[in-house]
Amino acid sequence: VIIFLSLIVSRTVTVFSFPDPSVAAQEAWSWEQYLTEQKAIAAPVELFSKDQSFPEHENGFQVGMRLEGIDPRHPSVFCVLSVAEVCGYRLRLHFDGYLSCYDFWTNAGSPDIHPIGWCEKTKHELHIPKGYRKDKFVWMDYLKACKLQNAPKKLFRNRSSNGPMPKEFQVGMKLEAIDRKNPSLVCVATIADIVEDRLLVHFDNWDDSYDYWCDVNSPYVQPVGWCQENGRTLIAPQGYPDPENFSWTEYLEATQTNAVPAKVFKMRPPHGFLPSMRLEAVDRRNPRLIRVATVIDVDDQRVKVHFDGWDHKYDYWMDADSPDIHPIGWCDVTGHPLEVPYRANDVKILPGQAVCPTPGCRGIGHIRGPRYSGHHSAFGCPYSDMNLKKEATLHDRLREQTQAHLESDSSHSKSKNLCSLSFNGKHEKVNSQPR
Ligand SMILES: [Zn+2]
């Protein structure tokens, strides 16, 4: 590992030059030199999970390929997706029939994506492209009629090596789970689905936007009775008649359900990230970008990342097992541009050139999503104060079914529909059902 790391840190990273190659000079930047300069250390590669670490396979996906996958905003929903962009080991995925403001980035080895036909095979409901009839949608006809290509099976990562789900975990069983959007809350939850080595956690009587997938060793899931044993408050299901006096015994009986047996929970050891460690992290305000970042704080399940050279107002917490953090050298190895630390004197502005006024921002990306590749003003900037303060929540894709007139890409610029970047920070306000 040490040899491998020293190999990759000694290679240089070319500064991604966009939108104007003359602005960002093709300067060489290297992790090795940077760490020495900063007297900093890299987060050891052993701290990263398989989904975060260096991939074992190339990214073979191509733009236009069709696949099935989870909607990150509705984790219980499987959709028809297409590859809109390929960058290094990452993909921008598009929901067929929807605006590109709902597109999202994922890793090519993500467990959230599957080849076409997977839903049918595994008896999951497939949410078909808008405009098609549920009973009339046939993948092969769709591909043929639209002259589309499916993503071949061999491009998807085989996860069987992680071993199957222990048979004690079954759909419908109850457990106690941490609400990842509000990590101080432990709530009554149900296993809503099981796929390969992961389970879908659903909070009883809450909408599915709180759902999440995790593996059985995740510190987010605990057996029934865990709160009582550990002196924590268990949040009863929404609408429970006497939430202060929630009783598992009564609830299991009333719902005719079983608890996952406590003995099958094996919590993984704590993550080993420590403050001041350097890594590469996806910038979720502008998710096409991966930046040089520092861990500046940690708690049991999370790390707080700071983007080197940027103001601390852009720091935020991420799950320690998030697939969006990577060991140093990951971008170089996978062929993804790395956004290197911003230094004021690096910026060379040509006379008359329109540039974004936000310090550090090179005008890449747009608050309204990938339809606009860049911006020249605070209005479009994902980092400007006006956009940080704004409740930058995306309209719900699944609640816009009736707004067919927004479908056409060409009409978008005239539409008043704000499709802004979704940023769920630590102090987010949940618009549908505040907890
Ligand atoms: Zn900007």
UniProtKB/TrEMBL annotation:
High-level lineage: Eukaryota, Metazoa, Chordata, Craniata, Vertebrata
Q: What SUPFAM superfamilies does the annotation carry?
A: Tudor/PWWP/MBT
Q: What is its main location?
A: nucleus
PANTHER family assigned? LETHAL(3)MALIGNANT BRAIN TUMOR-LIKE PROTEIN 4 (PTHR12247:SF78), POLYCOMB GROUP PROTEIN (PTHR12247)
Look up and give the organism this protein is from.
Canis lupus dingo
Protein name per UniProt? L3MBTL histone methyl-lysine binding protein 4
List where in the cell it is found. Nucleus
Signal peptide feature range? 1-17
What are the Basic and acidic residues biased-composition ranges? Answer: 402-412, 425-435
